[in-house]
């Protein structure tokens, strides 16, 4: 029997330009797919209403082509809202989500525990009666969800078998006040719909995979393997981040730098990597 094709993806959010860390992530995913005779997908995660800049998607495509990558593009998240709403409705009808009207500031003040996603929601709204029509976000009742799923495992191709520890992040938001979905629900559904077999992304998203594993189980979705690669570091040993003034790929490209040569350097690991945020 032929082995199943490896399907990976690069899923950037167009709320800032791509930088070197993104290039590395895209190359890792691209090469894992190509080495397995598989498919490398590009998915634009453009549901961050207030920060999303649709024009950046085209810049991203130019950046990836400049690096010498080839991909198949799947529909952007903004074109898939109905599938997110359907999944959220199903989870609501099973009593797995509850409405929450707390603001970030209220949560930061009330939270006593900090989890991998920031302050862990203390459950203030779990038993609150919120009048219909009030703007709310919907949170997963993680205790209830885990009682339904029982213990779960997932596999990272670098870090090995993981016991699912979704409780650490608490009752995360699955439906935002200003959008029909949050990253966790959207990415989980999309990876299943897109047939992704190897979810490839930076180790800074390691903790999110515990949450995604629970959502897969609740929604009866196929379970991929994950590949959380190390992060590129800047000269101070910090994660390269788009907000920290690291030069964008577009700037480098427009300045005439050779993209294929840069890709070769990234493949040869000529930049410091290391941090394994979230990975045990
Ligand atoms: N859209 C996310 C980001 O740009 C990546 C999500 C993922 O790879 O799962 O950070």
Summarize the structure.
This protein has nine helices and twelve strands. With 280 residues, it is of the alpha/beta class. It has two domains: 122 residues, Rossmann fold (3-Layer(aba) Sandwich); 95 residues, Rossmann fold.
Written description of the protein model:
- The chain is an alpha/beta fold.
- It folds into 2 domains: 122 residues, Rossmann fold (3-Layer(aba) Sandwich), CATH 3.40.50; 95 residues, HUPs (Rossmann fold).
- Helices cover 34% and strands 15% of the residues.
- The strands form 5 sheets. A 3-stranded parallel sheet has the order 1-2-3. A 3-stranded antiparallel sheet has the order 4-7-10. A two-stranded antiparallel sheet has the order 5-6.
- The two termini are 35 Å apart.
- 38% of the residues are buried.
- Bound molecules: glutamic acid (GLU).
**Order of strands across the main sheet:** 1-2-3
Please state the overall shape, judged from the principal axes of the Cα atoms: globular
β-strand amount? 15-25%
For the terminal residues, how far apart are their CA atoms? 35 Å
- The class by helix and strand makeup works out as alpha/beta
Low-confidence stretches are none
């Amino acid at each position: 029997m032929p082995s199943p094709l490896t399907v990976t993806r690069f899923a950037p959010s167009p709320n800032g330009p791509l930088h070197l860390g993104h290039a590395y992530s895209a190359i890792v995913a691209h090469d894992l797919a190509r080495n397995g005779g598989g498919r490398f997908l590009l998915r634009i995660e453009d549901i961050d209403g207030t920060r999303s800049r649709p024009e950046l998607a085209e810049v991203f495509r130019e950046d990836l082509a400049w690096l010498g990558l080839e991909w198949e593009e799947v529909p952007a998240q903004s074109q898939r809202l109905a599938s997110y709403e359907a999944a959220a409705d199903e989870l609501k009808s099973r009593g797995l989500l509850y409405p929450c009207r707390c603001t970030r500031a209220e949560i930061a003040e009330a939270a006593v525990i900090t989890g991998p996603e920031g302050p862990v929601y203390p459950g203030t709204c779990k038993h609150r009666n919120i009048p219909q029509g009030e703007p709310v976000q919907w949170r997963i009742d993680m205790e209830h969800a885990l009682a339904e799923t029982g213990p779960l495992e997932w596999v990272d191709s670098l870090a090995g078998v993981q016991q699912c520890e979704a409780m650490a992040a608490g009752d995360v938001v699955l439906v935002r006040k200003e959008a029909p979905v949050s990253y966790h629900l959207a990415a989980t559904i999309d990876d299943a719909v897109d047939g992704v077999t190897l979810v490839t992304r930076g180790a800074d998203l390691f903790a999110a995979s515990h949450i995604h594993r629970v959502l897969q189980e609740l929604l009866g979705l196929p379970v991929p393997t994950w590949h959380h690669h190390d992060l590129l570091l800047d000269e101070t040993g910090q994660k390269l981040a788009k907000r920290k003034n690291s030069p964008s790929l577009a700037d480098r490209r427009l300045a005439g730098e050779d993209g294929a040569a840069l890709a070769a350097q990234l493949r040869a690991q000529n930049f410091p990597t290391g941090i394994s945020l979230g990975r045990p």
